[in-house]
């Protein structure tokens, strides 16, 4: 590895840290919707895989560091993974401790990253000897993964019942494309279907707005007043080991370790479970909220890093909610990457270590310092100057472009159909993990149904 390549990796990591610090603060920016399309575009451009991995690791660390800001300031989750922290952040806000809330969550993220990186690298290498056995059963594993994640949702029966119909929709569209000749028979349209699921809730909402009765029945809100505390600005160089108490450090480290080891499970479910478990006996509301948000933020960061690195290094197939969601382009982005030829096959163990360390360190150095010192100013700028709708519009347009590139004009209709169905399923409580697992296992499911 030469100095030029290392410099390119650092530049990519810096760019990701800046971009996703801004995106993370914007409220409601779902992790999969904002990470997957950008990563996919970078892969399809033919950029060096090690540079893309540095960019991606920096992006997820920066995104998880900054999505705590809208939670603390306005009680609005910056992404799906920050939703469980809203209740505890509002407790601190009620006590006038918004600035403390931001510092605790950001520090928890740093602890999560610090724990997850070495644990993920060690565990991934420990799984390499059995990787061939796991890959031999990849297709049924995707199906059982869909069943397992469905059982983890609140609406278990509904989630289980949706598996076969959704698989029929996906595989039915593929057979339609083969029949009309828009793609060669046997070629699975994947990327655009994946992105259709990713942005499904947005597609569903846009179609609902075309319904006059539905549009008129929507509740109207005035401008929301958000107050900032300008007095309690953090002085000195931020240090997570000083910001967190001893017990908060211990619980953040332990939940991060568990989050790394349970990489195959739903990060949201594990976050809620462990966050409540570690704080259930604390009576003081401020101490309870502080412990909860620091532990939860550490766990989510750890789950994202381990859920990417362990399947990528050990297996080369996406067998975690994170790998099958935001990180999917690192595994499967035809024609550049396929399940038989992706980063797992082209990067060495040293490459993974370098890319991970550079991405994580750059994001922490840049984003953590900025968030702790200037979170209020940044949040005020983004809330007033960067429309949330503009970001969603950009990603929606990118999805339509890639749909056209995948299978022409007919596929734009197909992606909109998948998006509407996926949006309804998501609204019913069937999370992305279940839907992505169905997408992967659809050919196997249908082959077994028809014998």
UniProtKB/TrEMBL annotation:
Record flagged with keyword Nucleotide-binding: no
Keyword Mitochondrion applies: no
Superkingdom, natural source: Bacteria
Pfam families cross-referenced by the UniProt entry: TctA (PF01970)
Residues passing through the membrane, by range: 6-26, 38-62, 68-86, 106-128, 158-177, 189-210, 249-274, 352-371, 392-422
DUF112 domain sequence ranges: 10-431
Keyword vocabulary terms for this entry: Membrane, Transmembrane, Transmembrane helix
Protein's name in the database: Tripartite tricarboxylate transporter permease
Species classification: Bacteria, Bacillati, Bacillota, Bacilli, Bacillales
